[in-house]
Specification:
The structure is a single chain. This protein has about 80 residues and is α+β, with helices and mostly antiparallel strands. The strands form 2 sheets. Strands 1-2 form a two-stranded antiparallel ribbon. A two-stranded antiparallel ribbon has the order 3-4.
Length: about 80
Protein backbone atom coordinates (compact mmCIF):
# COMPACT_ATOMS: atom_id res chain seq x y z
CA UNK A 1 0.00 0.00 0.00
CA UNK A 2 1.52 3.32 -0.94
CA UNK A 3 1.18 6.53 1.00
CA UNK A 4 2.78 9.94 0.85
CA UNK A 5 5.52 11.36 3.02
CA UNK A 6 5.19 14.87 4.50
CA UNK A 7 7.18 16.21 1.52
CA UNK A 8 4.54 14.77 -0.84
CA UNK A 9 6.77 11.99 -2.21
CA UNK A 10 5.06 8.60 -2.56
CA UNK A 11 6.26 5.95 -0.14
CA UNK A 12 6.51 2.23 -0.95
CA UNK A 13 4.74 -0.33 1.27
CA UNK A 14 6.69 -1.20 4.44
CA UNK A 15 8.58 -4.49 4.48
CA UNK A 16 6.39 -7.46 5.30
CA UNK A 17 3.50 -6.20 3.17
CA UNK A 18 3.01 -7.34 -0.42
CA UNK A 19 3.66 -4.39 -2.76
CA UNK A 20 0.88 -3.51 -5.17
CA UNK A 21 1.40 -3.19 -8.90
CA UNK A 22 1.21 0.60 -8.48
CA UNK A 23 4.12 0.36 -5.99
CA UNK A 24 6.15 -1.70 -8.46
CA UNK A 25 5.49 0.79 -11.28
CA UNK A 26 6.58 3.67 -9.04
CA UNK A 27 9.74 1.86 -7.92
CA UNK A 28 10.68 0.92 -11.50
CA UNK A 29 10.14 4.49 -12.66
CA UNK A 30 12.71 5.67 -10.09
CA UNK A 31 15.41 3.24 -11.20
CA UNK A 32 17.28 2.52 -14.43
CA UNK A 33 15.78 0.30 -17.13
CA UNK A 34 18.92 -1.83 -17.53
CA UNK A 35 21.95 -2.41 -15.30
CA UNK A 36 25.09 -4.36 -16.19
CA UNK A 37 27.90 -5.43 -13.88
CA UNK A 38 30.64 -8.01 -13.54
CA UNK A 39 28.21 -10.73 -12.52
CA UNK A 40 25.72 -10.09 -15.34
CA UNK A 41 22.97 -7.73 -16.36
CA UNK A 42 19.41 -7.10 -15.25
CA UNK A 43 16.61 -5.49 -17.24
CA UNK A 44 13.24 -4.43 -15.83
CA UNK A 45 9.89 -4.66 -17.57
CA UNK A 46 9.15 -1.44 -19.39
CA UNK A 47 6.91 1.09 -17.66
CA UNK A 48 4.46 0.83 -20.58
CA UNK A 49 4.15 -2.95 -20.08
CA UNK A 50 3.56 -2.51 -16.34
CA UNK A 51 0.90 0.15 -16.92
CA UNK A 52 -0.80 -2.08 -19.52
CA UNK A 53 -0.77 -4.95 -17.00
CA UNK A 54 -2.30 -2.67 -14.34
CA UNK A 55 -5.06 -1.58 -16.76
CA UNK A 56 -5.74 -5.22 -17.67
CA UNK A 57 -6.01 -6.29 -14.03
CA UNK A 58 -8.31 -3.35 -13.23
CA UNK A 59 -10.52 -4.24 -16.21
CA UNK A 60 -10.74 -7.86 -15.03
CA UNK A 61 -11.64 -6.70 -11.52
CA UNK A 62 -14.34 -4.37 -12.90
CA UNK A 63 -15.74 -7.18 -15.06
CA UNK A 64 -16.29 -9.38 -12.01
CA UNK A 65 -18.75 -6.93 -10.52
CA UNK A 66 -22.40 -7.82 -11.05
CA UNK A 67 -23.24 -4.67 -13.00
CA UNK A 68 -20.38 -5.09 -15.46
CA UNK A 69 -21.97 -7.91 -17.47
CA UNK A 70 -25.18 -7.93 -19.48
CA UNK A 71 -27.91 -10.39 -18.59
CA UNK A 72 -30.77 -11.17 -20.94
CA UNK A 73 -34.20 -12.15 -19.74
CA UNK A 74 -37.57 -12.62 -21.38
CA UNK A 75 -40.36 -10.80 -19.60
CA UNK A 76 -43.86 -12.22 -20.02
CA UNK A 77 -46.65 -10.12 -18.47
CA UNK A 78 -49.37 -11.96 -16.54
CA UNK A 79 -52.69 -12.65 -18.31
CA UNK A 80 -51.36 -12.87 -21.85
CA UNK A 81 -51.03 -15.97 -23.93
Amino acid sequence: MSSETPSGDPQIAPSGEQPTLADVILENAKGPKKVAGDSGSVEQHSIKDLIDADKHLNAKKAGRKGFGALHFAQIVPDGTV
